[in-house]
């Protein structure tokens, strides 16, 4: 069963299934078999986003729980395995907007793990699920915490991440280290603003990205968040061989983005097209066509640009922020010439890749600021972002963000609310909690803008941190 788990975490599902079938013949009462099969379904849904697979697989959940409940109640794995299945299905359902059932499953997983912790305080695997849940609960802002209190759930981000990180130092949990690294990286990137922690996680992954897809994804995302685009490309170019593994096509999308940040358009196009040809899920389809439209715009190919905009509208789903934004600008782009200044777009791409000096040269490459007429909020926002990374004085950076906020707060673009978020993060770093709180709240007071969910999530997490 340990070997089958290792195969599963490496996305080697066929090899894992062979061992599970063998175990099922030799030891059919082993309840861990149900958990292992659930892991396979969970990761298949998470990575492949195949709705038909999701619909057929979720019917197996109750049978698996029933089989586990026929097992040994005195085992620490009895409640743990049930909790893991509930938790995995909660995350799978979030992919397909089944929020109500997912909420129940999260609460159920939490109560089972808390009970198991009381019964078996030294059972270390319990901390994996609790660490994840405490982090997620801790990211809920004060004005919504009555919900978690009602459900009997508590925790905070630092507590949750602390649990997970302690497991990485525990040899008893060595088998789970790849999964824990993946979970911790995901939470660190989405719940905190801690560059030091991201660097530490990247260091812990080490060369693990060359043989494990989940760690390849985590390392690529961590490298990107740290502005290390060359490392991000190295990671993605040296991903594991696909042979014997469930394909992780989203990595092609990430590599397309990484080359786009370098303004290497032909390589970027190749990876976006490969992603679109192979991925059968719902998310990032519209976004990939949107990026191909960007490239056509920058290469002055208006007919291709319009054709890609039409593909944005006709394919994929608009559930995640990237795809919603793609639809909005595709509709605008078909009606009008385009929606941004080409120099500002190149500046954005270079900045996102961590090429800050080059981005500043691009941004400053026009003769007068009036050449950016109609895009002043974006200009000041981009200038502030670049100066922040180049360690300009915080007073100057905040002033630039303030211009962007004042000019963009009534717009549907993200420059205004994102500027408020960034000012809040600067004040938080300076231990100016009152000022930080004001700007996190300013960000949360704005609505109906691009990337709203992700920006609000970061503002809520920030507000929770400074309020505590």
Question: Helices and strands in order, then pairings?
Answer:
Layout: H1 2-9, H2 13-26, H3 32-48, H4 51-57, H5 61-69, H6 77-95, H7 99-119, H8 126-138, H9 145-150, H10 157-168, H11 177-191, H12 195-205, H13 213-225, H14 229-237, H15 250-261, H16 265-278, H17 285-298, H18 302-314, H19 321-335, H20 342-352, H21 356-363, H22 376-389, H23 394-408, H24 415-429, H25 433-445, H26 452-467
Query: SSE string, helix = H, strand = E?
Result: HHHHHHHHHHHHHHHHHHHHHHHHHH
Low-confidence stretches: 139-148
Q: How does CATH name the architecture of the domain at 1-123?
A: Alpha Horseshoe
Radius of gyration: 23 Å
User: Helix proportion of residues, in percent?
Assistant: over 70%
The major sheet is characterized as: none
Q: Strand fraction band?
A: under 5%
Which term fits the overall shape?
A: globular
CATH class label of the domain at 1-123: Mainly Alpha
Number of helices: 26
Average per-residue pLDDT, rounded, comes to 91
How would you classify the helix and strand content by structural class? mainly alpha
Q: How many DSSP E strands? A: 0
Give the N-terminus to C-terminus distance in angstroms: 42 Å
The fold-level CATH name of the domain at 1-123 is Serine Threonine Protein Phosphatase 5, Tetratricopeptide repeat
Structure, briefly:
By secondary structure, the chain is mainly alpha-helical. The protein has helices at 2-9, 13-26, 32-48, 51-57, 61-69, 77-95, 99-119, 126-138, 145-150, 157-168, 177-191, 195-205, 213-225, 229-237, 250-261, 265-278, 285-298, 302-314, 321-335, 342-352, 356-363, 376-389, 394-408, 415-429, 433-445, 452-467.
């Amino acid at each position: 069963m340990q070997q089958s788990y290792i195969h599963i975490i490496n996305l080697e599902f066929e090899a894992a299934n062979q061992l599970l079938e063998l175990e099922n013949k030799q030891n059919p009462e082993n309840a861990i078999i149900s958990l292992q099969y659930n892991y396979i379904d969970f990761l298949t849904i998470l990575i492949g986003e195949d709705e038909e697979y999701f619909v057929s697989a979720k019917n197996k959940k109750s049978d698996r729980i029933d089989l586990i409940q026929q097992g040994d109640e005195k085992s620490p794995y009895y409640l743990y395995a049930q909790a893991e299945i509930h938790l995995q299905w909660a995350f799978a359902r979030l992919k397909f907007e089944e929020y109500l059932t997912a909420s129940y499953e999260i609460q159920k997983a939490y109560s089972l793990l808390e009970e198991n912790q009381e019964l078996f305080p030294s059972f270390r695997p319990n901390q994996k699920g609790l660490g994840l849940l405490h982090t997620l609960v801790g990211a809920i802002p004060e004005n919504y915490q009555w919900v978690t209190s009602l459900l009997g759930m508590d925790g905070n981000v630092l507590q949750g991440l602390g649990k997970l990180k302690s497991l990485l130092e525990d040899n008893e949990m060595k088998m789970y280290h790849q999964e824990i690294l993946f979970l911790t990286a995901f939470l660190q990137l989405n719940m905190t603003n801690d560059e030091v922690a991201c660097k530490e996680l990247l260091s812990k992954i080490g060369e693990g990205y060359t043989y494990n897809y989940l760690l390849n994804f985590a390392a690529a995302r961590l490298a990107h968040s740290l502005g290390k685009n060359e490392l991000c490309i190295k990671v993605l170019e040296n991903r594991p061989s696909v042979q014997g593994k469930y394909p992780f096509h989203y990595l092609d999308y990430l590599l397309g983005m990484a080359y786009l940040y370098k303004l290497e358009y032909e390589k970027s196009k190749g990876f976006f097209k490969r992603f679109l040809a192979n991925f059968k899920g719902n998310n990032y389809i519209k976004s990939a066509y949107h990026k191909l439209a960007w490239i056509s715009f920058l290469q002055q190919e208006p007919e291709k640009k319009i054709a890609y905009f039409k593909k944005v509208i006709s394919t994929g789903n608009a559930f995640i922020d990237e795809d919603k934004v793609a639809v909005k600008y595709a509709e605008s782009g078909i009606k009008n010439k385009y929606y941004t200044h080409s120099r500002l777009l190149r500046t954005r791409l270079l900045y996102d890749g961590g090429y800050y000096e080059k981005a500043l040269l691009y941004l400053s490459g026009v003769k007068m600021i009036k050449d950016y007429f109609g895009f002043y909020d974006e200009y000041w926002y981009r200038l502030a972002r670049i100066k922040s990374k180049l360690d300009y004085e915080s007073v100057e950076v905040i002033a630039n963000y303030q211009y962007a906020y004042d000019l963009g707060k009534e717009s549907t673009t993200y420059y205004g609310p994102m500027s408020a978020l960034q000012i809040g993060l600067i004040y938080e770093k300076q231990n100016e909690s009152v000022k930080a709180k004001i700007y996190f709240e300013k960000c949360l007071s704005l609505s109906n803008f691009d990337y709203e969910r992700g920006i609000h999530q970061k503002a809520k997490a920030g507000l929770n941190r400074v309020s505590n």
